């Protein structure tokens, strides 16, 4: 294989392919090195729903890059930049880096068109981001567009596009270190086995440390070593470790991560067939209880897109890191079949609340009291899943702020869940061009980064669909800078 590379990209997920494409389009000879074997191509990006948050002007605007929808009974409000920025600031408690946030939001829409031109296919996500109300499909939660075929489709499209554009992809290539000159310039990488590969620039896109239990417990805290991993087992923080060793500046919320309610029977790391189907995102329509039979979160605090990424951590903190989502018969139709009726779903059903508690092995008396108190506290008018309907509870703690309905229609159905970690928030600091900065704030020559391993954007929580967009926007920037 030629040693004559201009740019090496480390990690073949969405951010890596975007960086590689961008470097290529700016004239570079690009080698993408991926640690996993080909059967595990695509990193965490493969496991996604392919949901991508972008600014847009409504249906006519997204029609420029999505496949034509099967119906015109669609209500899709524009999602302007101020709203995306506002959502990002709100859920990150005002901590998201302002400059990176502006770039992410400001370039989101143009990046969707760029990806489409590269060959990625998009569609409106009727099945996960819209509800049919009064005969019309109403999109909610600032998120409407996803890749055709979810993460699996996205990675198939990226691989095909990489081949079309002459990007060399090498699987089973485990990068273990950076090659640095005496002057501190990064000029290539070292692979497991000792091989050196040189290039003018290296773009790190090798993900976070979510699949590394030692780093999880060191940075996220006790108990996080026991979380189940939703995605690839190969994201073990290698890129962050080697960048820090080269003098990169740590950045962002190192003790924070994205984590969700996840099927309690799932395997320790991601399932290539079921991917994100092991997520349990229907909790806004029921209640969530711990092993003591007590509620512990506001299930209806906001649209799922704005709460799901922080509720995994709440589950981790409960006794045994376990909980159960409880629904009655009248809301079962609102639970996404892809998640709640997938093969192997962990599920319990009973005609009585006592029976349900017994099946779940939780405190029966307390659970029945929790439901009775909850039912008595429900007030408000019409239930509407497509808007924040304000149908709330009065007098129970925690409150349920929206979509509160009595649990009174048997059979009662419960889904045992645990904490599934998605990705970690801490990483390296980049400048707006994608260059990695050192601890004195200077760009490290030849070193660039994008994707999950960049810190500074997400804190505490995350607006659903932002990870892939961030990887694409900053991958595109980093690739362009590396090629230059
Ligand atoms: C189940 C699930 C569902 C999700 N759904 C969505 C969604 O719908 N929308 C959204 O925006 N985000 C979603 N996310 C988050 C999303 O996956 C990430 O934000 C995004 O994929 C990160 O892309 P990336 O390219 O940075 O990392 P990845 O896609 O994880 O790619 C990193 C790659 O680097 C490789 N690598 C690691 N170490 C090395 C090394 N030493 N040498 C070489 N290669 C290495 C890994 O094998 C991997 O292939 C989801 C995540 C999961 C797990």
Description:
With 484 residues, this protein is an alpha/beta fold. It folds into two domains: 5-209 and 425-483, FAD/NAD(P)-binding domain (3-Layer(bba) Sandwich); 258-420, Succinate dehydrogenase/fumarate reductase flavoprotein, catalytic domain (Flavocytochrome C3, Chain A, domain 1). It is built from 14 helices and 22 strands. A hairpin with a 5-residue loop joins strand 10 and strand 11. It starts with a strand and ends with a helix. The mean pLDDT is 96. Flavin-adenine dinucleotide binds at residues 10-16, 33-36, 43-45, 47-52, 174-175, 205-207, 230-232, 234-235, 238-239, 275-276, 422-423, 451-452, 465-468, 471. It comes from Amycolatopsis thermophila. This is Tricarballylate dehydrogenase. Its cofactor is FAD.
List keywords for this structure.
binds flavin-adenine dinucleotide, alpha/beta, FAD, Flavocytochrome C3, Chain A, domain 1, FAD-oxidoreductase_2, 29% helix, 484 residues
**What is the domain total for the residues?**
2
Which ligands occur here? Answer: flavin-adenine dinucleotide
Give the overall shape, derived from the CA principal axes: globular
Q: Outline the low-pLDDT stretches.
A: none
Beta strand %: 15-25%
CATH architectural arrangement of the largest domain: 3-Layer(bba) Sandwich
Mean pLDDT: 96
Beginning-to-end CA distance, first to last residue = 23 Å
Total count of strands: 22
* CATH hierarchy, class of the largest domain: Alpha Beta
Helix content: 25-40%
- Provide the CATH topology of the largest domain: FAD/NAD(P)-binding domain
Largest sheet: 8 strands, mixed
SS-based class: alpha/beta
CATH homologous superfamily grouping of the largest domain:
FAD/NAD(P)-binding domain
Individual helix count: 14
């Amino acid at each position: 294989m030629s040693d004559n590379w201009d740019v090496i990209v480390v990690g073949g997920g969405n951010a890596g392919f975007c960086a590689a494409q961008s470097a290529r389009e700016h004239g570079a000879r690009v080698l993408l090195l991926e640690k996993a074997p080909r059967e595990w191509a695509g990193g965490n990006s493969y496991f996604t729903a392919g949901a991508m948050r972008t600014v847009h002007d409504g249906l006519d605007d997204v029609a420029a890059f999505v496949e034509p929808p099967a119906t015109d009974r669609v209500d899709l409000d524009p999602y302007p930049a101020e709203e995306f920025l506002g959502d990002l600031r709100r859920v990150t408690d005002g901590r998201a880096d302002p400059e990176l946030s502006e770039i992410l939001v400001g370039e989101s829409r143009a990046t969707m068109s760029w990806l489409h031109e590269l060959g990625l296919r998009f569609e409106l996500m009727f099945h996960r981001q819209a509800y049919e109300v009064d005969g019309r499909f109403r999109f909610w939660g600032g998120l409407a567009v996803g890749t055709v075929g979810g993460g699996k489709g996205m990675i198939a499209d990226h691989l095909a596009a990489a081949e079309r554009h002459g990007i060399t992809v090498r699987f089973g290539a485990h990068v273990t270190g950076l090659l640095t000159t005496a002057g501190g310039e990064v000029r290539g990488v070292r692979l497991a086995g000792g091989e050196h590969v040189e290039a003018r620039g290296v773009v790190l896109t090798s993900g976070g440390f979510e699949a590394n239990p030692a780093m999880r417990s060191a940075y996220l805290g006790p108990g996080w070593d026991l979380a189940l991993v939703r995605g690839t087992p190969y994201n073990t923080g290698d890129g962050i470790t080697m960048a820090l060793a080269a003098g990169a500046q740590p950045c962002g919320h190192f003790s924070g991560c994205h984590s969700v309610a996840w099927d309690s029977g799932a395997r320790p790391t991601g399932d290539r067939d079921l991917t994100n189907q092991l997520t349990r995102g229907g909790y806004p329509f029921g209640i969530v209880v711990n092993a003591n039979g007590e509620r512990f979160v506001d299930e209806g605090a906001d649209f799922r897109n704005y709460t799901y990424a922080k509720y995994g951590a709440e589950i981790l903190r409960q006794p045994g890191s376990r909980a159960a989502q409880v629904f009655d018969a009248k809301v079962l139709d609102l639970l996404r079949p892809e998640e709640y009726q997938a093969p192997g779903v962990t599920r319990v059903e009973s005609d009585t609340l006592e029976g349900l508690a017994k099946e779940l092995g939780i405190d029966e008396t307390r659970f029945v009291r929790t439901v009775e108190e909850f039912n008595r506290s429900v007030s408000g008018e019409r239930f509407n899943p497509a808007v924040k309907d304000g149908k709330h509870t009065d007098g129970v703690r925690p409150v349920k702020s929206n979509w509160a309905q009595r649990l009174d229609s048997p059979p009662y159905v419960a889904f045992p869940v645990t904490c599934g970690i998605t990705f970690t928030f801490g990483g390296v600091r980049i400048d707006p061009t994608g260059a990695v900065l050192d601890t004195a704030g200077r760009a490290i020559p030849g070193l660039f980064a994008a994707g999950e391993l960049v810190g500074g954007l997400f804190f505490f929580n995350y607006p659903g669909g932002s990870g892939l967009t961030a990887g694409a926007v900053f991958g595109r920037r980093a690739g362009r800078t590396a090629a230059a």
